[in-house]
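I would like you to sit down with the record closing this message with an eye to the fold:
=====
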Amino acid sequence: MRMLGLLLAPLTWPAWGIEALSRRKGGVFEFGIVNSTPYFACWGLGATAVVVWSGNVWLAGAGLYILTMMELVALGISLMLAISRPGRIQTFMLEIAQRHRPNQLISVNVPAVYGSLVALGYAVWYFACVALYMHRHFAGFYSGVEARGPGLPLFWQFLYFSFTTVTTLGGHVQPATFPSELLVANEVCVGIFFFLFLLTAIVSRYLDELRQP
């Protein structure tokens, strides 16, 4: 877990700094599922801009690293909520995420449904950035890509490719090498998981409302 904390440091340390500054000023602000959206959106858009427009493989790779950490956070938390014991969730929240949550069961509520929906959308965005990075910096990874320069038109092609992949619709862009085929297979698996997690969250929320007197 400590290694995971170090890998997530570029994302977590600035957030902890904002919370510490709030506490020094007498506040009790703490990032949660909903109010962390602007924070992660800034990181995501900034890292995406680097991947889309940077012609340097290392600089674009740094942007992709940030996006990968965000995807791992979304996938990891979703997996823990889906299959892990509450004690392990509490350990993660206290030791890695440094969330001051009481030791109680974490139930599926409106923020959890919102988070699962955002996680599904971000998975589509993330895999589009990975595919774009592979196409721009390594030749021959994809076929059917129209000849366009770096920027939003090229990114849109891969965003649509990612959407058609996760929904299994198919499109004109196709993987042409084993690494790109493996990426597509991973995206399909991740997409199925997030679809099921979102459906479970919605159904659980609905059943909780029915149980209430």
Notes: The CA atoms of residues 143 and 174 lie 5 Å apart.
